[in-house]
Amino acid sequence: MYYNFNNDLASGRKYENRARKILEPYYGELAPCNDYRWDLKNSRVSFEVKTDFISKNTGLIGIEYKNKEKLTGISVTQADYYFIIGFDKSWSMIVDGFKQDGWWLGMVIETDMLKDVCKLPFLKRVWGGDNKNTAMILVPIEHIREHTVDIYPMVHGVLT
Known about the structure:
By secondary structure, the chain is an alpha+beta fold. The protein has one domain (5-156). The chain has helices spanning 5-27, 55-58, 111-118, 141-145, and strands at residues 31-32, 40-41, 46-51, 60-67, 70-71, 81-95, 98-110, 124-128, 134-140, 150-156. The strands form two sheets. The protein has a six-stranded mixed β-sheet with strand order 1-2-3-6-7-10. Strand 8 (124-128) and strand 9 (134-140) form a beta hairpin. The longest helix has 23 residues, at 5-27. The chain is globular and about 50 Å long.
């Protein structure tokens, strides 16, 4: 599969805005930030927003920690929380009287807790992204879900 950073960046901004709309009723107005420190912030709280489209096929969330030889992502963020958008095939909800399995979820997890989860010895580390320059830890979505502070079901089926 061909990866294009510019397409990913545009998509990331779209889902940062979506995350902001979900979070603001609970955390207050959030401003965007365009550097490594966080993606959304106010005077009380900050969030890193991560959307993993491939999670629908893999059940895994890729947590970035290095690009080439430079620390990035979870290694350098100053965010209090991660807001992770991923597909959870085992999440079920009753909608219009029918059980629907498999939902895109927005999950809030404390950054320090996510760092602890990423230290689990059995997790796989891979290189991906543009020219395979990005180092990631692949975390099963259920490990993230089990440690979340809040879960926001977003959509059943296709994330648009």
